[in-house]
């Protein structure tokens, strides 16, 4: 399976009530790659992701999937191509892992279609990929945060879409589980060519795992490109209003951002020097 | 985590087995409930001031003339028992539809004022306007839809269904009940038992004229809700997830509301708002079925069983004859208190 679907936003304007959150934004998601969207709190990252999966209708402009506006595609057809894991999905009380993951098959089923072998295979593959096979019969509300997040990702995998959008998939997870989830998404991208777009809070994780980094500020794309191009001291200051040093991460050779605050600065990196650079 | 590959056959089989097991469990529960409903239905045809054996009852149902039984069973008990089943199925199905859709057991139509709105309108139409039959049903459905639309606009403005919806609903329920009480106080000629029909629901004096519209509504609207089963299960995961799974959230919600409100209004116009059946049927069904799939059919059957059994108990078990709604009310009120205590303990948010 190779993912060659194109996803793009054209002059996209989004908002809630009388507040405009995203203002005439243009964005192209590279097919078959991992894209991470970063930005300050309330800069519209999640709003953008919700609109790309048509949870939010645009005020202006459009989101194009393979050249067609997503808001005019039939709901199930879109759901067979593009999956989304929202930031806080709700698990019904008492639902078992296997049942929840099976809900991901919805876009492949009609009102009267019976459950087929390929549905079981998709659920099994999703459970194995997320290492949740042994949890299959457990109720979701008894699981730990990390396990639960893997189960939700399994549900999105069972949907078998070529594009997968995730809203902060690593929030509330400890560092080991964060790496585990991001490794899984990388596996998925490499093995199936799935295009992954995720909103991430952690800049360094984003720089490490993304092929393409998009920094949002004031409702627009401030910078987009390789992690080396985007995660720079200038961009961090412009987007977050934060002084920082960016070095090369010795483990991944990707950029690593070290924030500079008002305290705990070593003599070797005096604040004045940094200020002068700014 | 390992790379993504084709699943091992053992895992696929385990998934298939688990799914079959859940489906079998659900089918068993549905079958047992259906048998119990049939048994309670048969019992309510046989039991009364005169006991008729199953043979006599069967012959009456098949249209043969049996002295004595033809009148008592055919004209008095049969329409009453049929309405008990129809109203029970309607209340149960509509209730669990609301509870599933709004992801909250407290969001049942009899707690949030939809049934009591329909009842107030029906009582008003009968007492003040002198209407009867279809006109009363239409008034009830218009009022119930009006309450639903009012709640939808008041509570869904930013797409959140939660505490606010339930609090607004409880307010509307209190208002409608006070309207019903006022209407009844103006109807001097009515006896207390008849008044209770519009306050808590009663099957006393049921005729075919009252039963048939409710039955037709169930035949039309029941399947409409059952077709939504999968979409409603999707809505349980939250609006965003449901939408990402290809469910048209808004359309599903509106169809479900119209279907459920229609069922409630027709049943309420026939026998009043039988207290707490909508509220109890879903959670009882959930207890019995467990996390094994949709609750729509099991909850409808539980609703029918509740009404049939409560009506038998109300008529014959307590010495005095109580209307069915008094019995279901006695069952429902403690559960309502339990739910509120439990949700408060769980963190204060409903």
From TrEMBL, chain A:
PANTHER family: IRON(3+)-HYDROXAMATE IMPORT ATP-BINDING PROTEIN FHUC (PTHR42771). Keywords: ATP-binding, Cell membrane, Ion transport, Iron, Iron transport, Membrane, Nucleotide-binding, Transport. It comes from the Bacteria. This is ABC transporter ATP-binding protein. One of its GO terms (biological process) is iron ion transport. GO terms for molecular function: ATP binding; ATP hydrolysis activity. It is a peripheral membrane protein. Pfam families: ABC_tran.
Automatic annotation (TrEMBL), chain B:
InterPro entries: ABC_BtuC-like (IPR037294), ABC_transptr_permease_BtuC (IPR000522). GO terms for molecular function: transmembrane transporter activity. GO terms for biological process: siderophore-iron import into cell. The chain crosses the membrane at residues 28-52, 81-99, 111-129, 135-153, 165-185, 205-228, 254-281, 293-310, 322-341. It is a multi-pass membrane protein. Keywords: Cell membrane, Membrane, Transmembrane, Transmembrane helix, Transport. Its main location: membrane. The keyword Ligase does not apply. Pfam families: FecCD. Gene3D superfamilies: ABC transporter involved in vitamin B12 uptake, BtuC (1.10.3470.10). One of its GO terms (cellular component) is plasma membrane. It is found in: Cell membrane. It comes from the Bacteria. Belongs to the binding-protein-dependent transport system permease family. FecCD subfamily. This is Iron chelate uptake ABC transporter family permease subunit.
